[in-house]
Amino acid sequence: MTSRPLDSQVDALRASEPLSDAFLTGVLRDLVGARSINPGVYEAEMVARVQAWLEPTPASVHLVEMFDERYSVAAVLRGAHDGPTLVLNGHMDTVPIDDGERWIADPFAGEVIDGFMYGRGACDMKAGLTTQIGVMHHFAGMADRMRGTLMLHFAAGEECAEPGTLSLVEAGFTGDYGIVTEPTDLRVATAERGIGYYTVTIPGRSIHASRSHLGLNPLQRVPAVLEALFEYDRDVRQKPHPLLPGGSCTPTVIRAGVKENAVADACTILIDRRLLPGETVDGELEEIRRRLAPISAAVPDAPIEVTRFRFSFQPAEIPADSPFALQVRDTAQMVTGREIEIYGTPFASDVHNLVNDAGMEAITFGPGRVEECHCANERVLMANVRDAALVIAKVAEDVLLDEAA
């Protein structure tokens, strides 16, 4: 770290053009304009725009295929001297648009109103990607002073728990420290809940409804199954964690039948299970099976089946007093002048790939409030984006710049 007083270091960062309001607003508006809805449109246009923003920098840019010709992007700026690698991670995809009539601005125009930029993905999480691009531009002329590597991840598929970040990790794009730039309102998250998705299939035997007594109606067992799941939900919500709310087991979708005068041949119930650190996706599969086993045994010739569906997020955490987490917190307090909380995110993110799969000391920290994601009139406060960029740039300087340079 340089020997200048901290205030002067922050003042120097505020004078950096890539960390300015004008630069960051331009980047974010351009990224919001790239439709990257998942499922549907996916990330191809975002990949092109990210590459275009990185092209003026000396970073080497790599495309890593996740699957089906969908790519994640890694950008690597290596310093002149050996040292740690700092990874900044974010995802390029967004959720779909809901009712367009409820928006006060075009969801893909990146319009700024009263200091907020509106748009699908503005908060989740193209604001975070914008800070990453700003930091890389800030470091563009510093490679000869660096004692390590700055690495950026732009991942595919996170909104559907697809392995975009995992594909980058498996391709060798890992490091010592990581910041996932999801929206935390500049709080520092050292823990996150995971998600497991499960399908409960209750088999039946279809028949004309006028002869229903000769069939097997799967809906008869639905109340007992739901009661067992709701009881489990009550239990897991009571499990304590110092930074996170309890877990949850939430039935979300029920499907059965094809016509009103026919008994269904099966009923499926979809479950969203939020997991605490220490719990696992596979372990919860077995626990749900155990909870439903008595109901299943009551009809031995039609056993209930519980399976996983889609991809999943394992829960993850590092110590709340991790030196890197405290460094980010202290820097955020210095830049913003306000108290910054160490907490845990109730939502899941790709930080689990950095912590669990790559073994990194990684936290979640970024601009925006999660309450303003996945909704009509999604927005992010541009002042928050700039503060996040300043904090991450300062942390990156402290980690990567050679003190003797």
What does this structure look like?
This protein is α/β, with parallel strands linked by helices and 405 residues long. The protein folds into two domains: 273 residues, Aminopeptidase (3-Layer(aba) Sandwich); 113 residues, Alpha-Beta Plaits (2-Layer Sandwich). The chain has ten helices and 16 strands. The strands form four sheets. A six-stranded mixed β-sheet has the order 1-2-6-3-7-15, sandwiched between helices. Strand 1 and strand 2 form a beta hairpin. The termini are close together. The mean pLDDT is 95.
Observed structural traits:
about 400 residues; alpha/beta; Alpha-Beta Plaits; 2 domains; 6-stranded mixed beta sheet; 4-stranded antiparallel beta sheet
- Annotated CATH architecture of the largest domain: 3-Layer(aba) Sandwich
Q: Please list the strands of the largest sheet in the order they lie side by side.
A: 1-2-6-3-7-15
User: What letter string, H or E per element, gives the SSE order?
Assistant: HHHEEEEEHEHEEEHEEHEEHEHEEH
Under CATH, the topology of the largest domain can be stated as Aminopeptidase
Short overview:
The chain has 405 residues and is an alpha/beta fold.
SSE diagram, text form:
Blueprint: H1 6-14, H2 21-32, H3 44-54, E1 60-67, E2 70-78, E3 85-91, E4 112-113, E5 116-118, H4 122-138, E6 149-155, H5 164-170, E7 177-180, E8 188-192, E9 194-203, H6 222-237, E10 248-256, E11 266-275, H7 281-297, E12 305-308, E13 316-317, H8 323-336, E14 342-345, H9 351-357, E15 361-364, E16 379-381, H10 382-400
Parallel strand pairs: 3-6, 3-7, 7-15, 8-14
Antiparallel strand pairs: 1-2, 2-6, 4-5, 5-16, 8-13, 9-11, 9-12, 10-11
Helix pairs in contact: 2-4, 4-10, 6-7, 8-10
